[in-house]
Amino acid sequence: MPDSSLAATVEARLFQPLTVRGVTFKNRIVIAPMCQYSAEDGLATDWHFAHHSGFAIGGAACIFFEAAAVEPRGRISYGDLGIWSDAHRDALKPIIRFIKDQGAAPAIQIAHAGRKASIQRPWDGNGPMDGSDASRGELPWEVVAPSSVPTADGWLMPAELTPAEMAEIKSRFVDAARRSHEAGFEVLEVHGAHGYLLHSFLSPISNFRTDDFGGDRVNRMRFPLEVAAAVREAWPADKPLFYRISSTDSVEEGGWQLEDSVAFAHELKARGIDVVDCSSGGIGGSATALRIPREPGFQVPFAEAIRRDADIATMAVGLILTPKQAEAILEAGQADLIAIAREALYDPFWPRHAAYALDADPGFEDWPDQYGWWLARREKGLVRPD
Ligand SMILES: Cc1cc2nc3c(=O)[nH]c(=O)nc-3n(C[C@H](O)[C@H](O)[C@H](O)COP(=O)(O)O)c2cc1C
């Protein structure tokens, strides 16, 4: 029998389940996608197993795999994960199995880096590839975009995509969705943010096309919405589909704005997207000076506005650091889910520690037995030194 003195007393919103289509999230905490730059030819490695297993033991309801490229040239760097072949799919299966065994929902973000592809791993320079990369046998590859405009001075000049090539990329997203399902993922997210291919179609900073895919907002939204609709069709009806946006370009002047995101979210909802994951920025170039101060929760107002004005579930992300802060976001109705990234690197057990702090699991009952059995017994007689 659990010790009643250690039973949960507070119904923390952070620990209320949420059902989206056929998937029930055991709480509201999601580990955001985080590139590990540790894949080999796009294949998951032991590092990915250890990285995701920590989060699964750590109690998050949903654990995202990093941006997985739908085709090789859609990788940001040589270290990115891919999902462009059955071998890539199969390498993910043991990790997915472990995550499910811990009661969490495995999720994957499918991506194409567009004109921001072919750069160095962060610790190799974090910029366009140069001679030091060539000495490792890593040569730049051709990058593609809506228009032949580079991200910034010194970055690769992208080739402008033809409509036929765009249709090809759309079918790569569809293949990636199918493989993600076959691998056992329960949640899928289309990466439409941070200046990568789909965002670069939306933004007037990177899209100068004169055909049906450029010009006014309706035209700039056309290709991302076509991809969203095609992925929704390929992804099972009982599984949730998320879409990550850059809610604003966060540039000094012009660019994609929050009101554009509200309009886009309406269209995503009409195409069966369940959750809009509200990030911002990344379009690149000299116009990236930040208008938005990077204070805790700086992107939460975007999740709030989109949730309210487009009437769609949102996920808040960005410098969400403490359980109280997360709880307050949910309490104020600003978002339905809370995504954490770097704070989960600092503390992969953040959700379990949050449950303790919010009195949702004071008795360690929700922990895996391998850990919880010991911690519950230790707790009874524990006097912590100052
Ligand atoms: C190491 C690292 C890798 C990231 N990789 C991705 C990615 O693959 N896809 C993505 O949409 N965002 C990526 N991000 C952004 C995070 O998902 C998140 O939006 C951002 O870090 C802000 O949240 P935080 O303040 O909790 O870290 C990455 C962030 C970090 C720190």
Walk me through the structure.
The chain has an eight-stranded parallel barrel with strand order 3-4-6-9-10-11-12-13, surrounded by seven helices. The relative contact order is 0.14. By secondary structure, it is an alpha/beta fold. The longest helix is centred in the middle third of the chain and has 21 residues, at 163-183. The chain has twelve helices and 13 strands. It is 35% helix and 15% strand. Bound molecules: flavin mononucleotide (FMN). Residues 32-35, 66-67, 109, 191, 193-194, 244, 279, 317-320, 340-343 line the site of flavin mononucleotide (FMN).
CATH superfamily descriptor: Aldolase class I
Name the ligand types: flavin mononucleotide
What structural class do you assign from the helix and strand content? Answer: alpha/beta
Major β-sheet strand ordering: 3-4-6-9-10-11-12-13
Q: What is the averaged pLDDT score?
A: 95
CA distance, first residue to last residue: 31 Å
Describe the biggest sheet? 8 strands, parallel, barrel
Write the layout of secondary structure elements.
Blueprint: E1 18-20, E2 23-25, E3 29-31, H1 46-57, E4 62-69, E5 81-82, H2 86-101, E6 105-111, H3 131-134, E7 144-145, E8 159-160, H4 163-183, E9 187-192, H5 197-202, H6 217-234, E10 241-246, H7 258-270, E11 275-279, H8 300-310, E12 313-317, H9 323-331, E13 337-340, H10 342-346, H11 350-357, H12 369-380
Parallel strand pairs: 3-4, 3-13, 4-5, 4-6, 6-9, 7-8, 9-10, 10-11, 11-12, 12-13
Antiparallel strand pairs: 1-2
Helix pairs in contact: 1-2, 2-4, 4-6, 6-7, 7-8
The site of flavin mononucleotide (FMN) has 20 residues, from strand 4 and helix 10.
